């Protein structure tokens, strides 16, 4: 069994710490990926409205979060 | 409370703000505190680091922190946990850098870390000027340093307590230190002699 599948088993299954840490890491990664994509879209001339629609959130939410950049 | 901070401990906190500024981070994070600790000379913390053989390897620790920033600030333990979900963090980092340039994730951490980083509410707010809030993790290090000092019955908070607090908390700074032989236990050994470690 590889280390990865071993971890996967623990993540899905037995050790809550591994699973919770994975969720927390994923959340942080997600925030950063979102920021990368939003900036990229802005650089390509997308409006806040268009970005918000793709992200499935309100225009206000996305503007409040990234608007000051 | 901050009147209990020694000159060296204050220098670390202010130095951390300086490193955050230099790195264009919107918040002051634990890694900035470690960078500030590595700057100290002739302090209790620098004595401990030197005793553990870090004197000539400070640059190597700084490189490890820079590498973690490039991974979006995620620790190796984070990467392992993600791989448990079938997510290959290094692959994601390289894809993002292919599309958006080297260091793209690092550049985007600024907003992400703001959440939970309030400003000016805690006892440390009195001596941290400027507009950069400390992240929750960085505040926790300050709180932990107080706890460690109290447990040690020290009547002051020194930079060694900040270093111990960083080493005691899981995350990028503790990993970078451990990779260079500096752990909570080894620090306690050189600072306080044999006694058993009270892990944070």
UniProtKB/TrEMBL annotation, chain A:
Gene3D superfamilies: Homeodomain-like. InterPro entries: RNA_pol_sigma_r3/r4-like (IPR013324). This is HTH domain-containing protein. It comes from Streptomyces avermitilis (strain ATCC 31267 / DSM 46492 / JCM 5070 / NBRC 14893 / NCIMB 12804 / NRRL 8165 / MA-4680). The lineage of its organism: Bacteria, Bacillati, Actinomycetota, Actinomycetes, Kitasatosporales.
């Amino acid at each position: 069994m590889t280390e990865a599948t071993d971890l996967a088993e623990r993540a899905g299954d037995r050790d809550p710490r591994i699973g919770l840490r994975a969720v927390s890491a994923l959340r942080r990664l997600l925030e950063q990926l979102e920021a990368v994509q939003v900036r990229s879209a802005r650089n390509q001339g997308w409006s806040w409205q268009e970005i918000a629609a793709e992200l499935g959130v309100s225009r206000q939410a996305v503007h409040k979060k990234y608007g000051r950049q | 409370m901050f009147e209990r901070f020694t000159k060296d401990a204050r220098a670390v906190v202010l130095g951390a703000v300086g490193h955050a500024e230099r790195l264009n981070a919107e918040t002051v994070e634990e890694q900035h505190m470690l960078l500030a600790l590595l700057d100290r000379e002739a302090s209790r913390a620098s004595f401990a680091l030197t005793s553990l053989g870090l004197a000539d390897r400070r640059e190597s620790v700084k490189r490890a922190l820079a590498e973690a920033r490039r991974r979006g600030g995620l620790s190796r333990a984070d990467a392992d946990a993600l791989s448990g979900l079938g997510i290959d963090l290094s692959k994601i980092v390289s894809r993002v850098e292919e599309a958006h340039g080297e260091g793209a994730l690092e550049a985007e951490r600024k907003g992400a870390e703001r959440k939970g980083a309030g400003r000016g509410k805690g006892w440390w707010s009195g001596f941290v000027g400027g507009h950069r809030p400390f992240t929750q993790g960085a505040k926790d290090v300050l709180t932990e340093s107080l706890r460690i000092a109290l447990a040690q019955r020290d009547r002051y908070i020194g930079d060694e307590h900040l270093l111990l607090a960083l080493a005691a908390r899981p995350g990028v700074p503790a990993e970078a230190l451990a990779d260079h032989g500096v752990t909570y236990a080894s620090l306690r050994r050189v600072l306080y002699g044999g006694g058993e470690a009270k892990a944070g």
